[in-house]
Design a protein that fits this description.
The protein is α/β, with parallel strands linked by helices. Helix content is about 40%, strand content about 10%. It has two domains: about 1-65; about 135-485, TIM Barrel, CATH 3.20.20. Helix 15 (about 390-395) crosses helix 18 (about 440-465).
């Protein structure tokens, strides 16, 4: 309650000054001063536009005072951004502008160091096209899918109720409903706030099987069938790992489990909620594909896929071999880059475990091409994708659509206070404190979610047209260029080429990059994730 302290003091001093008028008219001066502060604080608590002011009446204005200096110091801030920052200030500014519907154009050209090594850009055409409709869609559902889903190419990535507040979940899902795109539930299950919002859902199932588990924490087919039958559930996603902490389990302490969280996850109150590092329902690639087949059958043919951050590349090839062996091909795979975020992760995991998105996506895309399966499933991408350029880059490298968590978190008001794991989120996004969560006004923030999605797709349409294309799925690696060293530039297809279809299934080598893939393919097997030897 200390965040309301200055407001409470202003109210008390205003009341004391009012009483003092009975003794001296000099008390009129402090009454005017403290009365004005008390009135401003009251307005802060009651207004719905700024969550920071609702949670920090009076004191929250200091943040906006400092923001007022931004035009003067903005260039310095951009140039002094540390590589270790979770998001650059320029990216945050772009997200907020698109979410609020504020003009995002600026004078004086690029503020990027275009001659630095690593600078990237997309090629444009001398004969640009006019892309009228920016509601870009991709159909997800393979040959065995009975209920394919016409998905937006930009959706809300996995964030669980429990990690996010009830108001944050409701604002996101309400925005997804209005904007016609989907929200991934995260592994925390389907909450009443997902249902209340009415938006399309991607039901994520992690190793804890929340929402479809037995009392012992194993998979419950009956409960799963009931969850998958919900009309809002459009796709099911089996989570193997996430980029921020791949290979790491989790625990929600009993003290943090509320009745609503227990309801969504199907866990009892007063007991620690454990998510094991590995799935207990399968231990081999073939068993994994059989489990995916079971999930699809129990869902009456809805699209079923899995999400992972690429680790041992041979293990992913084992999964692909199992697809060929069993004939069970998932409808989609989401590749999560190690740059993906989370509310809390061990520092070493977040910094140095797992494969970044570009490398992971390229490897998965080419492996599926080499096995002749790429045209039978869709590829999603996630991991710090918030701008139109980042999304188009991922699509040029093989993705069919992109998911974003941080972008949509910022759209509902996240200021990256990095207090997610403390329950003290200053804007009510990542907290289970009802008083803090109250600051997030659902109607206002859901509109920002809609605008962020729509304005990002509009920017994608403009960039697609500038490249002379009709749809963002037409972008290829050769549309991407990057500066390798001073004065040297390379095209994306030189570094991230599309390898030939079916090359892993024949002996004819046509590209130098095939050799590394072939070596791992020979060491992979469909009936075990374990290697023949210790060479990965």
């Amino acid at each position: 309650m200390q965040r309301f302290g200055p407001y409470a003091i202003a109210v008390l001093l205003a009341l004391a000054s009012l009483v003092g008028l009975a003794f001296s008219l000099w008390f009129a001066l402090p009454l005017l001063f403290f009365g004005a502060l008390a009135a401003l604080g009251t307005h802060d608590v009651l207004q719905t536009r700024h969550a920071i002011l609702r949670n920090y009446p009076l004191m929250g204005h200091l943040r906006f005072v400092f923001e007022g200096f931004r035009p003067e110091i903005r260039q310095y801030l951009i140039e002094s951004d540390a590589d270790e920052e979770p998001f650059s200030r320029e990216q945050r500014s772009l997200i907020y502008q698109r979410a609020k519907g504020v003009e995002d154009k600026r004078p004086f050209g690029t503020r990027r160091r275009v001659y630095d090594s690593g600078f990237e850009w997309l090629t444009h055409s001398a004969v640009p096209t006019k892309v009228e409709n920016s509601d870009f869609r991709v159909t997800v559902g393979g040959p065995d899918c009975k209920q394919p889903y016409d998905a937006s190419i930009f959706n809300i990535s996995a964030m669980s109720f429990g990690a996010l507040s009830s108001n944050a979940i409701l604002a996101l899902n309400t925005g997804a409903k209005k904007g016609g795109f989907a929200q991934d539930t995260g592994e925390g299950g389907i909450s009443r706030y997902h249902i209340e919002g009415g938006g399309d859902l991607i039901y994520e199932i992690g190793s804890g099987y929340y929402g479809c588990r037995t009392s012992e924490g194993r998979f419950d087919p009956v409960r799963y069938r009931d969850q998958a039958a919900k009309p809002q559930v459009k796709m099911i996603e089996l989570k193997l790992s996430q980029g921020a902490k791949p290979g790491h389990g989790g625990m929600l302490p009993a003290a943090k489990i509320t009745p609503e969280i227990a309801e969504a996850r199907g866990v009892p109150m007063g007991v620690d909620c454990i998510s094991p590092a590995a799935h207990p329902e399968f231990s081999t690639p073939i068993e994994m594909m059989e489990f995916i087949g079971q999930l699809r059958e129990l869902s009456n043919g809805k699209p079923v896929g899995f999400k992972l951050c690429i680790g041992h590349r041979r293990e992913f090839m084992c999964m692909v071999r199992a697809m060929i062996e069993t004939g069970i091909v998932p409808d989609y795979i989401v590749i999560d880059g190690k740059e993906g975020g989370t509310g809390a992760a061990p520092v070493e995991f977040a910094d140095h475990l797992g494969m970044p998105l570009v490398e992971g996506l390229t490897f998965a895309h080419n492996t599926l091409r080499g096995a002749g399966l790429r045209n039978k499933l869709r590829l999603g991408a996630s991991g710090k994708l918030v701008t139109s350029f980042q999304i188009l880059k991922a699509m040029a490298l093989g993705a069919d659509w992109a998911n974003s968590a941080r972008g949509f978190m910022m759209a509902v008001g996240c200021i990256q206070g990095q207090a997610c794991h403390t329950n003290h989120c200053p804007v009510g996004v990542a907290t289970q404190d009802p008083l803090r969560a109250r600051a997030l006004d659902v109607p206002t923030k859901s509109e920002r979610v809609v605008r962020f999605h729509a304005n990002t797709l509009h920017a994608i349409a403009e960039m697609t047209g500038a490249a002379g294309l009709d749809h963002p799925t037409q972008f290829l690696p050769n549309h991407l260029l990057m500066r390798e060293r001073d004065r040297d530039m390379v095209t994306g297809d030189e570094i991230y080429p599309y390898l030939p279809e079916g090359f892993l299934l024949n002996d004819a080598e046509t590209h130098p990059a095939e050799q590394g893939y072939r070596q791992r393919w020979e060491r992979s097997k469909p009936d075990s994730f374990r290697p023949f030897d210790l060479s990965y």
